[in-house]
Amino acid sequence: MNLNTKKLFHDAEAGGYAIGQFNASTADQIKGIIGTAARMRAPVIVATSEGECAFIGARQVVKLCEAYEEEAGIPIILNADHTYKDAEKIENLDKIKALLTAGYNSIHFDGSVLSFEDNVRWTKQVVELCKEKDPGISVEGELGFLPGASEVSEKKVEIKPEYLTDPAQALEFVRATGVDRLAVSVGNSHGISFQEDRLDIERIGKIKEAIGDHAVLVLHGGSGIPDEQIRAAIAHGIRKINVNTELRVAFHGALKEVLTTTPQTTPYKFFPPAIDAVARVVEGKITVFGSGMHA
Ligand code: G3H
Ligand code: ZN
């Protein structure tokens, strides 16, 4: 997966579309994601959170994606999502070294719980570490705090004004760290809750205006946002959108249905409906993101 990720995002910028990041922790979910992206000729980002990576295995997910890339003939970025999000044992960046050794071609370092200065300091070190290994490795930093987890919740998620990304600070962050991509907090949250996400489109536009072409603008928490808001976000400069919860819900729902309504015990017979459910979500997202027919 020796990709020119810069070119992929450059093409997205020129074409005015966003590349989808889809999280997974099992081979079945990955089959649904990549199968759909290949059919729609869309560049795609497969991602694992720390928990997802621990479950599937870093080396295993790399090999799986490599095999799919050869077969599908579409570019696949494999991103380590929210690495160090709790800022635990960050000192020697061991987790990132292990991910790079395993073969990930993209790293998202999440320093959003740190102070601005510490976030800059650590993100810069991550960029240096990754580029030393291979200048082609794409690095995402995060500025601003996006609350919530990738789950369905009945709780109201509070978005405090201080969580939101400041456009002027965004430029300072990008310049000081050298990140390829910038994840921002623009009014939404991770997961699906019963309050509808409302993106601050004006803020997205201001951040884009401030950072220009210095970094790719990334929207996290892509689940549960109405399509027209997603289209507006893309029109204002978002070029990568992360989706997880909607995929989890689709996979879980379809699997539950098949396991409770049929006596089927053969995995390769009871998994396909769940894979199809993931595929349908991915198809919908790629359609809204406009990335189809670009690979
Ligand atoms: O990093 C992953 C995404 O931000 C997932 O967010 O679960 O709301 O789709 P989501
Ligand atoms: Zn996220």
Secondary structural class = alpha/beta
CATH topology: TIM Barrel
What proportion strand?
15-25%
Shape: globular
Number of strands: 10
- Name the strands of the widest sheet in spatial order: 1-2-3-4-5-7-9-10
Largest sheet: 8 strands, parallel, barrel
End-to-end gap: 15 Å
User: What low-confidence regions span 5 or more consecutive residues with pLDDT below 50?
Assistant: none
Along the chain, the helix and strand elements come as HEHEHHEHEHEEHEEHEHEHHH
- What is the gyration radius calculated from CA atoms? 18 Å
Walk me through what this model shows.
Helix 2 links the parallel strand 1 and strand 2. The protein has 12 helices and 10 strands. Helix 2 packs across helix 12, helix 7 packs parallel to helix 8 and helix 10 runs antiparallel to helix 12. With 295 residues, it is of the alpha/beta class. It starts with a helix and ends in a 6-residue tail after the last helix. The protein is 48% helix and 16% strand. The chain has an 8-stranded parallel beta barrel, surrounded by 11 helices. The protein has a two-stranded parallel ribbon with strand order 6-8. The protein has a single domain, classed as TIM Barrel (Alpha-Beta Barrel). The site of zinc ion (ZN) has 5 residues, from loops.
